[in-house]
Amino acid sequence: MEDNNAQEEVSPLAGQSVGGWGLLQIAGCTGLAAYSVWAFILMPGFRRVPLKLQVPYMPASTKQVAHVMTLLKGRSGKMVDLGSGDGRIVLEAAKSGFSPAIGYELNPWLVRLSYFNAWRVSYHRRVSYRREDLWKVKLNDCQNISLFLAPSVLSLLETKLFSELPDGARVVAGRFPLPTWPPSTVVGEGVDRAWAYDIKAVRQVQSPKQHDTPV
Ligand SMILES: C[S@@+](CC[C@H](N)C(=O)[O-])C[C@H]1O[C@@H](n2cnc3c(N)ncnc32)[C@H](O)[C@@H]1O
Questions:
Q1: How many other β-carbons are positioned within 10 Å of the β-carbon of residue 178?
Q2: CA pair distance 197, 170, nearest whole angstrom
Q3: Is the pLDDT reported for residue 8 higher than 80?
Q4: Residues near ligand 1 with C-beta < 6 Å?
Q5: 0.90 cut: is pTM over it?
Q6: β partners of residue 144
Q7: Which contiguous run of DSSP H or E holds residue 163?
Q8: Is the pLDDT higher at 183 or at 9?
């Protein structure tokens, strides 16, 4: 008896096609859901950053982190990761004695995750994760910089680094090299590769004119 009632309730829907309007609604809802995930989970805080400068989160591999640290070996002082993601490179730098070790990251979820990761190993007081736009941070006093960003923004970043960094600074780029700078050292292979650039050497071979586009 109950089965018959259930069948009667379901049967009006059975065999009905979704139709054009239905498809449009499904497409609209899917699009809205995808946009919400993008805007509120993956890229919150990026609304004021021009589209061409938006770089999504992708964590460095364990080997990539190790190569970045190899290229910073023997150095000390302030270390900054531009676009610090879940904070893994800054955490490793703090463990290697860099102080202050600072990450700039626009995504607030990643900033929280970074502190949580540091807290788990009792390093939360020795790292600093700041929710700031890396393009607006002044780097004049920074001796050690690491970055793992999309190739599309690296040319503009060269200009910023060239004009702001002190002569003794070293920049380490993970996965993608800086497009025109000559590297001092390269370690690793494929996606784990990292490049080191000594700003003094870069300034010796490049004229400021090559970097006169304003950021
Ligand atoms: C490819 S991930 C690298 C994460 C981390 N450095 C690592 O190596 O694991 C790039 C990170 O940069 C952040 N990012 C992109 N543009 C930024 C900006 N303008 N200011 C601050 N962070 C930014 C993204 O949110 C993302 O987490």
A1: 20
A2: 6
A3: no
A4: 49, 55, 57-60, 81, 83-85, 88-89, 104-107, 110, 133-135, 148-149, 174
A5: no
A6: 79, 170
A7: helix 151-164
A8: 183
